[in-house]
Amino acid sequence: MTSTPEAQVQELRRQLQSLLEAAKANERKLDRFDALERRLMAVESMEELVNLLLVDCRHDFQLDAAELWLLDPDGELSRALPALPMARAPRLLDTHGPLRDMFGAVRATRLVGPGHGEAVVAQAFGDDTPMRSAALLPLIRQGLLIGSLHFGSRDPERYDATSGTKFLDRLSAIAAIAIESMLNRERLRRAGMTDGLTGVHNRRYFDHRSLIEFSQAVRHRYPLACLFLDIDHFKAINDGHGHPTGDEVLRQVGGLIQRSLRTGDLAARYGGEEFVVLLPRTDLAGAREVAERIRLMVQDAPFITPDGGTLNATLSAGLAMLQPGAASFAELLNSADQALYEAKRAGRNRTVAAAADISAATAAAS
Ligand SMILES: Nc1nc2c(ncn2[C@@H]2O[C@H](COP(=O)(O)OP(=O)(O)OP(=O)(O)O)[C@@H](O)[C@H]2O)c(=O)[nH]1
Question: Which residues does the UniProt record annotate as the domain GGDEF (predicted)?
Answer without folding.
Answer: 222-356
